[in-house]
């Protein structure tokens, strides 16, 4: 099988990630920070090492700013529902995943409003103007994805961070499609809340994610419980990461995520981005002249358009066309990709699209096979 569904979850995982998870299951079997015996302390140290690595990787002020979550969606919910109050307003983008839109819609029913600013692909100046025009006197936060999970459109988060700082707003970034692909430095980019999946560009296992923030003490909690700290008190600790980490953490997943971050550092994000971009350019160039093929963005360049390609074959529903690829043992993702707002913006809400996304492990030969399969499918239509 040729796996090109890496925008959902990267696969395969690096051998070092598999090895780290196995080691954690064999050696770190105790609850971290809950006991005084050696295995518990060793487990706590292993968890802290991942925290420290992540803080350094993403430019956070302190390892304690890293709270482990079950995924990126969990992190987004913690930040939005923790900081916003009735009467507040949020500016987001018109390309957001439901990880952002469903929490915002739930909050809207509780008296928190939002405006979706239009992203102009390739025109960062206009995008920034659109965001600035959406700001109201009661706006509290700019909350935006870093890049579209459907179309690869990259948003100018550096400039959005500057805008947020200028207007005295919190800034939340959903880095689901960019963590491990693009450099992110929270302090330099003015990011208050960075929401990260562990299982995508960081090559960790499913069930891992992070909310990185130095504003944790300002958040209301969604979950309270045992933290191994201040146990005599019946109120949740105010300090991070304990404030956002109740109950036993996913030690095997976190240890494996640590190995995934180290793998990305060793490979180099520039090299990963270049490799993936060249592969998607190869696919794009090979079939863009086919009259049956419909692309929705310019050729991926790794700057404005990341190596995530959405396309359709004529008027064929994307879910139906995807069956041909499945028969050819090509794994891609059809449909709406949990992002109806993005599809509405690009006019694909009815048909959906087929999405390709490579990883560091995808080869040129595999992409050539997908090109050949596409041409064969076109001939069948």
TrEMBL record:
<protein>
    <recommendedName>
        <fullName>cysteine desulfurase</fullName>
        <ecNumber>2.8.1.7</ecNumber>
    </recommendedName>
</protein>
<keyword id="KW-0663">Pyridoxal phosphate</keyword>
<dbReference type="InterPro" id="IPR015422">
    <property type="entry name" value="PyrdxlP-dep_Trfase_small"/>
</dbReference>
<dbReference type="InterPro" id="IPR010969">
    <property type="entry name" value="Cys_dSase-rel_unknwn_funct"/>
</dbReference>
<dbReference type="InterPro" id="IPR000192">
    <property type="entry name" value="Aminotrans_V_dom"/>
</dbReference>
<dbReference type="InterPro" id="IPR016454">
    <property type="entry name" value="Cysteine_dSase"/>
</dbReference>
<dbReference type="Pfam" id="PF00266">
    <property type="entry name" value="Aminotran_5"/>
</dbReference>
<dbReference type="InterPro" id="IPR015421">
    <property type="entry name" value="PyrdxlP-dep_Trfase_major"/>
</dbReference>
<feature type="domain" description="Aminotransferase class V">
    <location>
        <begin position="2"/>
        <end position="369"/>
    </location>
</feature>
<dbReference type="GO" id="GO:0031071">
    <property type="term" value="F:cysteine desulfurase activity"/>
</dbReference>
<dbReference type="InterPro" id="IPR015424">
    <property type="entry name" value="PyrdxlP-dep_Trfase"/>
</dbReference>
<comment type="similarity">
    <text>Belongs to the class-V pyridoxal-phosphate-dependent aminotransferase family. Csd subfamily.</text>
</comment>
């Amino acid at each position: 099988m040729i796996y090109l569904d890496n925008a959902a979850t990267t696969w395969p995982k690096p051998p070092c990630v598999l090895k780290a998870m196995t080691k954690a299951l064999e050696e770190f079997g105790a609850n971290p920070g809950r006991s005084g015996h050696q295995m518990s302390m060793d487990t706590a140290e292993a968890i802290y090492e991942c925290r420290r690595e992540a803080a350094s990787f993403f430019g956070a002020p302190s390892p304690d700013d890293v709270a482990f979550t079950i995924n990126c969606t969990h992190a987004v919910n913690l930040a939005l529902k923790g900081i916003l109050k009735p009467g507040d307003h949020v500016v987001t983008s018109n390309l957001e995943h439901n990880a952002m839109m469903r929490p915002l819609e739930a909050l809207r029913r509780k008296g928190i409003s939002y405006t979706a600013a239009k992203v102009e692909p390739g025109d960062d100046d206009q995008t920034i103007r659109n965001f600035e025009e959406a700001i109201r006197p009661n706006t509290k936060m700019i909350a935006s994805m870093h890049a579209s999970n459907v179309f690869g459109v990259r948003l100018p988060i550096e400039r959005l961070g500057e805008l947020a700082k200028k207007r005295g707003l919190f800034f939340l970034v959903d880095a689901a499609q960019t963590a491990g692909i693009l450099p992110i430095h929270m302090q330099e980019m003015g990011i208050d809340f960075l929401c990260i999946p562990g299982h995508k560009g960081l090559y960790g296992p499913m069930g891992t994610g992070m909310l990185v923030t130095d504003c944790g003490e300002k958040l209301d909690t969604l979950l309270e419980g045992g933290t191994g700290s201040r146990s005599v008190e019946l109120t949740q600790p105010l300090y991070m990461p304990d404030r956002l980490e109740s109950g036993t953490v996913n030690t095997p997943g976190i240890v494996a995520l640590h190995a995934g971050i180290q793998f990305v550092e060793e490979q180099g994000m520039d090299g990963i981005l270049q490799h993936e971009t060249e592969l998607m350019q190869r696919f794009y160039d090979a079939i863009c002249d086919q009259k049956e093929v419909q692309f929705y963005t310019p050729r991926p360049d790794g700057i404005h358009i990341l190596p995530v390609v959405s396309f359709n074959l004529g008027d064929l529903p994307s879910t139906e066309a995807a069956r041909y690829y499945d028969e050819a043992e090509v794994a891609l993702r059809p449909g709406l990709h949990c992002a109806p707002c993005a599809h509405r913006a690009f006019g694909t809400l009815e048909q959906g699209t087929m999405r390709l996304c490579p990883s560091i492990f995808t080869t040129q030969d595999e992409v050539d096979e997908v090109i050949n399969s596409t041409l064969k499918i076109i001939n069948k239509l």
